[in-house]
Write a structure and sequence with these properties.
Blueprint: H1 5-11, H2 19-28, H3 35-47, H4 52-68, H5 74-90, E1 102-107, H6 114-127, E2 132-137, H7 142-155, E3 158-160, H8 168-182, E4 186-191, H9 199-215, E5 220-228, H10 234-245, E6 250-254, H11 264-272, E7 276-280, E8 288-290, H12 293-301
Parallel strand pairs: 1-4, 1-5, 2-3, 2-4, 5-6, 6-7
Antiparallel strand pairs: 7-8
Helix pairs in contact: 2-3, 3-4, 4-5, 5-11, 5-12, 6-7, 8-9, 10-11
This protein binds guanosine-5'-triphosphate and magnesium ion.
Magnesium ion binds near residues 114, 115, 138 and 190.
């Protein structure tokens, strides 16, 4: 199955309700670039989880371009509109981090797919020939480290873990020491799921982040927030709170295979100024894809 086929499948799950179907419907049934058309477009974007403010911004932009560039046909308008969405998705930028090792801290609320994403990433990096180390800083349940260990075995990499209930920052400290000693290329830290409004748990993330900064000062740092694409607009609130606790450098949108909406990707990219790095499209090892704005927008319209 091709690159964005799985997303396309999800987005067009139900012909009438899916974001893709609705968008296609609007441009397909186009008669003229009047107020009715723009209103319908804005409404469709909101239903697709894009959020009211981005929906309005994107529609206003299309209205402006239609006027100034004299766009009249459905085709011209659709091309311009796709371009507008791509620009929003690219607004987070994506500069590659320099330094060594690469340290990826993975955070997010409960059950969004953090551990699974780490397993998939570990497999990708080991396949590239990188020396990967996983850190089980979710010490909340013993099963969490066991789950990560299974992914480590699958990927063929090592894992650092401690007993259940250990201080997560202490496990990260150990992992940083091991990374230094073993010349690791990529260290990926799993963390326990937490609600963004629990201050003590959010402080714990800040502490973990400081440990990495102190122990591996030359590292290329990435902090990925994992968001379940099926949660809709609450994802935006999560992004804001987690960013305050541990400066985000990237987003991973999981379960895009299970949503007929997917517009939350656009809402978060617009609001957060943080790039979407990966999308999860299933539970298997190879169900993680580097995010491509153009591919995503194509999937919305195809
Ligand atoms: N369909 C689908 N399922 C996914 C995806 N990513 C993760 N899952 C599933 O979501 C469930 C939770 O995944 P985990 O990786 O355990 O999530 P987590 O964020 O580590 O959970 P906690 O550690 O409990 O906070 C599992 O059943 C995964 O198989 C995805 O992209 N698509
Ligand atoms: Mg987990």
């Amino acid at each position: 199955m091709g690159f964005f086929d799985k997303i396309r499948q999800g987005l067009s799950k139900t012909k009438k309700e899916g974001a893709a179907g609705r968008l296609r419907g609007i441009f397909g049934g186009f008669s003229k670039a009047g107020e009715e058309f723009f209103e319908e477009l804005e409404e469709t974007l909101i239903l697709a989880d894009v959020g009211a403010s981005v929906a309005m911004k994107a529609t206003d932009e299309l209205r402006d371009r239609a006027r100034s560039e004299k766009l009249n046909s459905a085709e011209e308008l659709q091309t311009a509109f796709e371009q507008i969405l791509i620009e929003i998705l690219e607004s987070g930028g994506s500069e590659p981090k320099t330094g060594s090792p690469l340290v990826i801290l993975v955070i997010g609320v409960n059950g969004v797919g953090k551990t699974t994403t780490i397993g998939k990433l570990a497999a990708q990096y080991t396949a590239e020939g990188k020396n990967v180390l996983l850190c089980a800083a979710d010490t909340f349940r013993a099963a969490a480290a066991d789950q990560l260990e299974i992914w480590a075995q699958r990927a063929g990499c090592k894992i650092i873990r401690q007993s259940e209930g250990s201080d997560p920052a202490a496990v990260v400290f150990d992992a940083c020491a091991a990374a230094k000693a073993r010349g690791v290329d990529v260290l990926i830290c799993d963390t326990a799921g937490r609600l963004q409004n629990k201050a003590n748990l959010m402080n714990e993330l800040s502490k973990i982040s400081r440990v990495i900064e102190r122990e591996l000062p030359g590292a290329a740092r990435e902090t990925y927030l994992v968001i379940d694409a099926t949660t809709g607009q609450n994802g935006l609130e999560q992004a804001k709170q987690f960013d305050a606790a541990a400066e985000l450098t990237g987003l991973v949108l999981t379960k895009l295979d299970g949503t007929a909406k997917g517009g939350i990707v656009i809402a978060i990219a617009d609001a957060m100024n943080v790039p979407v790095k990966y999308v999860g499209v299933g539970e298997q090892t190879d169900d993680l894809m580097a995010f491509e704005p153009k591919g995503f927008v194509d999937a919305l319209f195809e």
